[in-house]
Amino acid sequence: MDPVTSVFTLLILLLTFVLVTLGSQAMRRQQRIRLSLRPIGAYQEMPTIIGEAVESERPIHVSFGGSGLGAEATVSALAVADLLYPLAERAAIASQTPIISLSDPTALGLAQGTLIRAYRRRDNMDAYTSTAARWYPNGGRSLALAAGVAGALADEDANLSVVAGRFGPEIAFIGEQATRYDQTFYGHSDQLDGQAVAWVMSRQPLIGEELYVAGAYLPAQPSATHLSQLLAMEGLRVVVLVALVLITIVAFAAEWIGLFLLVVGIAAGVLAVIFILNYLRQHRGRAT
Questions:
Q1: Which of helix, strand or coil describes residue 91?
Q2: pLDDT, tens digit, for every residue of 228-284?
Q3: Rounded distance, CA 64 to CA 59, Å?
Q4: Where are the domains of the chain?
Q5: Which of 139, 136, 203, 147 has its CA nearest to residue 171?
Q6: What is the distance, to the nearest Å, from the Cα of residue 282 to the centroid of all Cα atoms in its chain?
Q7: Lowest CB count within 10 Å: 20, 140, 143, 178, which one?
């Protein structure tokens, strides 16, 4: 990473930290603040589908894909954990433990810890099983993960499949299996090719940054931290848009400043000549 990119990255991280900190403090002090969130179809439907899964005693499935901790996909792994917790908390009242799939070993502890926290919140640790989080062989295009998850969805008759994180085109295997067995499928990927497939196959697709705001949408009462993260994301969006506009203006000015000054100079010269001619004409008229 070159020095300029490093500096801008540090500035963005610092700005994000400041916005999250200030936002969370404001949310905690002003309990009456109510944010009006734009509707996201997938998050609106998920609680209802979880209820249907509990009533029919069918498990739900959530996949981290290739996301893991300590690498490029760390942010998406943490975002999937934020997505998993409210879903698992709703499903923890049933006897069927959710199915969690992943291909990065570092996400195994994250998935198990998130499930344990959800079951403790429901005071139903007797229904928790440590084998709910399942590891499949890793790889840039982990067909083993896609094939294993597709088989598990068929064998265990899952009611809901939420596939998010780092996926490529292999996400199509999971989506096709969910469609074949009449299972609700929601997909997201931080890779462009995987996102394109998820968009086509999902009942309600999740696009881009929508994965990272699950903690503000899915819980019945989102925490101040999650709401402040949402505000920070929107604030950074505004900053980026303003920066793009300013860069465009500066680039346009730098390219056309010479021509602009030439036109202004010619116009000023023409006006000056007209003014002088009018002055001389008026002065000659007075002299005669």
A1: helix
A2: 777 777 777 777 788 788 888 877 777 667 676 777 778 887 787 777 777 667 666
A3: 17
A4: 1-34, 37-232, 246-288
A5: 147
A6: 72
A7: 140
Q: Residues 198, 221: contact at Cβ < 8 Å?
A: no
Residue 77: partners with Cβ closer than 8 Å, 6 or more residues away: 64, 67, 68, 69, 104, 106, 107, 110, 165
Strand runs labelled E in the chain: 60-65, 99-102, 133-135, 160-166, 184-187
The residue with tokens 């705001």 is: 213
What is this structure's pTM?
A: 0.73
* HSE-up (13 A, CA, CB side) for residue 72: 5
H or E stretch covering 285? helix 224-287
Domain 37-232 CATH assignment equals 3.40.50:
yes
Nearest-angstrom CA–CA distance, 277 and 243: 47
Torsion-angle region of residue 100: left (phi > 0), alpha (psi -120 to 50) or beta?
A: beta
For residue 63, list its beta bridge partners.
101, 163
From its phi and psi, is residue 33 left (phi > 0), alpha (psi between -120 and 50) or beta? beta
* pLDDT tens string 77-112: 999 999 999 999 999 988 888 999 998 889 999 999
Angle between helices 171-180 and 192-201 (to 10 degrees): 10
Contact 259, 267 (CB under 8 A): no
What span, in angstroms and rounded, lies between the C-alpha atoms of 45 and 160? Answer: 11
Nearest CA to 158 out of 80, 81, 67, 54 is that of 54
Q: What amino acid is encoded at 207 in this protein? A: I
What is d(CA 98, CA 101) in angstroms, rounded to the nearest whole number? 10
